[in-house]
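B., you asked whether I could sanity-check this one before it goes into the benchmark set. Here's the sequence:
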Amino acid sequence: MRTIDEGTDSVELNIAVEKVGFIIIKAREFDVKVDPVEPQPGSNASDDGESSILSDYAGDATEEELRGAISSLDEDEVIDLIAMVWIGRGDFDASELDEARALADERHKRNSADYLLGIPLLGDYLEEGLSALGYSYEDVEKSHL
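And here's what the prediction gave me:
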């Protein structure tokens, strides 16, 4: 568990900020994927500008990495991750973390990877939630990139 002091308040998370940062990075990579487009007949593959990397093909490693990262979390980590998304999306305020955790525990911990991968802008919501809880994503991002 990690604790951070923000003035006189402290927010304790059950998930390491580094794990959240990795999930943010993978979620953003996953979010930019688009449906594959078949190349024009007679086109040269070397002229496609490497755009195929943004295509969402079956068995894509980005989705597998993101799904694996979420699936490997323990129950408390998943609950915090979901609560963080909801705080980042504006469904809850940072002061309502306990309520968000309770609802996440009740509703989504079993199919968390499917639920989270179905949220557009997952990475952005996680970053917003992380920030609202007093943590900096930029420091984590620098260590991963």
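One thing to flag: The chain has seven helices and two strands. Otherwise nothing jumped out at me.
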